[in-house]
């Protein structure tokens, strides 16, 4: 980073692994042909794309041909949600999701709601989890889709997908999982949970931006129609020339994750807990999300007694500069407090005064120790300068 800063925003995007860059550079040099072209260079490119599907599919227990390449998980979410709606034509039905989902899920559902669809947004508890029984009770005969994320992008809270999938087995609704934050890092088996549609990301896993995938079950296939037209690529569901170098980069990123994930998760979780212990010492901090249900790389804390904007400015402008966030990068332009944290019962002021600290493959112990010291110093300085009243309901891990 510039200014010798420390990067703690891996939930927004991860630095690309040098080994991925090497694969992509080689692909740009060797595979300039269109992978759909019927000649030798095109077929070589197509073979490379086919091989790249294998580690991505293996990460979720799927077959390589079950994947539809997209420009990222946000597009995959849109294709899943709008594609199901398109399959039912002019017969609006019902969809279920959680009120804490990513904007790439809540947005298309809101658009469908304006077109006559009925949308149920289920609440979560203080730890950010939705009980499977609550979801099962919300099912209706005309429920067409249930969309639940694997790992929340703000808090790292993991939903019980196996139990949710079991609640849906006797219902014809399609089960969609936004796995952008978890796939390749945490176990996910589409057969075990009964998922019909799964959105995957590359740049959350030290791969390139601009590429993702949607798993689409083949048997039994969900009701899913194309929402874009003009090409026959990707089973007719997503037209456009495949971006060979990005696809190969995503494949390499997933291959590396499969090789390193268990040990990497243990190391990152230990660093995350070390960071929390350093921050908790300043007092009046709330750890958002029950630690037993949070993915290894995420730590979301609300800081009592400080002004949210001042804290974030101090982190960004201090020395060393800290790359942290309030929550979803897709909502970074909003001055409002986090809707995810408010749904978990945080007061608006405390929900606004939050830091999302996300660690990754290249986060070191020195990074964590320095960041912990610097953030704690910022908090103590700001409290001394302009103390604010805030509830002292710190949650200790």
TrEMBL record:
Coiled coil: none
Cofactor list: pyridoxal 5'-phosphate
Pfam families cross-referenced by the UniProt entry: Aminotran_5 (PF00266)
Superkingdom classification of source: Bacteria
Ranges for domain Aminotransferase class V: 6-369
Transferase is among the record's keywords: yes
Family: Belongs to the class-V pyridoxal-phosphate-dependent aminotransferase family. NifS/IscS subfamily.
Keywords associated with the record: Iron, Iron-sulfur, Metal-binding, Pyridoxal phosphate, Transferase
SUPFAM superfamilies given in the database record: PLP-dependent transferases
Catalytic activity: (sulfur carrier)-H + L-cysteine = (sulfur carrier)-SH + L-alanine
Species, as recorded: Spectribacter acetivorans
Lineage: Bacteria, Pseudomonadati, Pseudomonadota, Gammaproteobacteria, Salinisphaerales
The protein's name in its UniProt record: Cysteine desulfurase family protein
């Amino acid at each position: 980073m510039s200014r010798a800063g420390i990067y703690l925003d891996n939930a927004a995007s991860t630095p690309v692994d040098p080994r991925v860059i090497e694969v992509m550079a080689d692909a740009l040099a060797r595979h300039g042909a269109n992978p759909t072209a019927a000649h030798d260079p095109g077929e070589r490119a197509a073979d490379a794309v086919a091989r790249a599907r294998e580690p991505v599919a293996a990460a979720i227990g799927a077959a390589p041909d079950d994947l539809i390449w997209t420009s990222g998980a946000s597009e995959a979410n849109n294709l899943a949600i709008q594609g199901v709606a398109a399959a039912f034509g002019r017969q609006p039905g019902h969809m279920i999701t959680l009120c804490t989902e990513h904007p790439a899920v809540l947005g298309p559902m809101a658009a469908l709601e304006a077109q006559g669809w009925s949308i149920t947004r289920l609440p979560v508890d203080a730890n950010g989890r939705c009980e499977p029984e609550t979801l099962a009770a919300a099912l209706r005969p005309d429920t067409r889709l249930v969309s639940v994320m694997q790992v929340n992008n703000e808090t790292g809270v993991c939903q019980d997908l196996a139990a949710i999938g079991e609640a849906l087995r006797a219902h014809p609704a399609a089960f969609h999982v936004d796995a952008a934050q978890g796939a390749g890092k945490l176990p996910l088996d589409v057969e075990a949970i009964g998922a019909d549609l799964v959105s995957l990301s590359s740049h959350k896993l030290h791969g390139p931006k601009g590429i993702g995938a949607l798993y689409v079950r083949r048997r039994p296939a969900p009701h899913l129609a194309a929402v874009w037209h003009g090409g026959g690529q990707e089973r007719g569901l997503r037209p456009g020339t495949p971006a060979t170098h990005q696809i190969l980069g995503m494949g390499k990123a997933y291959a590396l994750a499969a090789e390193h994930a268990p040990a990497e998760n243990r190391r990152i979780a230990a660093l995350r807990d070390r960071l929390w212990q350093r921050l908790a010492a300043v007092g009046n901090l709330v750890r958002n999300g029950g630690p037993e249900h949070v993915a290894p790389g995420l730590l979301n804390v609300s800081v009592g007694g400080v002004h949210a904007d001042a804290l974030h400015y101090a982190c960004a402008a201090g020395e060393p500069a800290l790359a942290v966030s309030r929550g979803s990068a897709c909502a970074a332009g909003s001055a409002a407090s986090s809707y995810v944290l408010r749904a978990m019962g945080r007061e608006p002021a405390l929900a606004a005064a939050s830091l999302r600290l996300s660690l990754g493959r290249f986060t070191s112990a020195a990074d964590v120790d320095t960041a912990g010291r610097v953030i704690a110093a910022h908090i103590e300085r700001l409290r001394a300068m302009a103390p604010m009243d805030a509830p002292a309901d710190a949650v200790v891990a």
